[in-house]
Amino acid sequence: MTVLWFVLFALILVGYFALEGANIGVGVLLPVLGRGERERARLVSTLGPLVLVGEVWLVAVAGLLFGAFPSVEGHVLSALYPLVVVLLLGWVVRDAGVWFRRRATAPAWRLWCDGLVVTGSITLAFTWGLILYALLVGLHRQVLSPAGILLGLAVTALLAVHGLVFAASKARSRAATLVARRLGPFSKIGVTGFAAVLPALVMVSLRASYLLDNAAPDGTLSTMAWIALPVVPLIAAAQWWAWRAFTRPAPVQSFF
Fold first, then answer.
1. In a 10 Å sphere around its CB, with 0-12 CB exposed, 13-18 middle and 19+ buried, how is residue 81 labelled?
2. Average pLDDT, whole number, for the chain?
3. pLDDT reported for residue 243
4. Are 196 and 28 in contact (CB under 8 A)?
């Protein structure tokens, strides 16, 4: 039962970086990909509905960590509290830019919201890199070390490339398509998706024994299985439907 919950945790974490990672990457590159108001509006229109879809995975990661690995959750949150706060702030700032962008027509308002999307997305990507570094080397090590900053930049770059290919293949961004053509095999969203999840996958693999040794009692895991596992296929089906439905080309005016 412990192994089952570990595998489920790993799959959900990977799902977050594969799906929400594309959204974050588009936000990081919004000033580059959005050449003109119409192009930026189209990118945000594609991004908007998928933000909620991707965040389901983050909520699931936190809930599963709390239920199946409670001691790990408490240890991680207490040790990485400043980074978790920054991550949540980046999340709120990015979402505020996405939701409020179309609530007014003034160009200055839209530029301000675009700035929120970019700032929040970069904060999310870089902070995730620092968190993964801390989980890899030890929770009480200095994360703002050269290696930690390098991993933060690497995660930001991987998510940016994933977002670029997403914008080219799903959002039909002209600027993204021109750049993606030069990436060769990395112009496929499956390849960039795998690259985006690789840091998290390496972290989970190296920390597998720590998670397995600190799992909840078997009775708790069994009770959770009866409650949660039947819902997993429904969530997966809903995620697949949302990805298919909201990544089709649509008029800019279609966003909510």
1. exposed
2. 83
3. 63
4. no
What percent of the chain lies above the pLDDT cut of 70? 91
pLDDT of residue 41: 82
Own/partner pairs for 91-95, CB < 8 Å, 24+ apart? 91/55, 91/58, 91/120, 91/124, 92/120, 93/119, 93/120, 93/123, 94/24, 94/27, 94/51, 94/119, 94/120, 94/121, 94/123, 94/124, 95/51, 95/120
So what's the pLDDT on residue 35?
77
**In whole angstroms, what is the distance from residue 11 CA to residue 182 CA?**
31
pTM of the predicted protein model = 0.87
As a whole number of angstroms, the distance between CA 256 and CA 247 comes to: 14
67: Cα within 13 Å, side-chain hemisphere: 20
Domain coordinates of the chain in residue numbers? 2-82+154-254
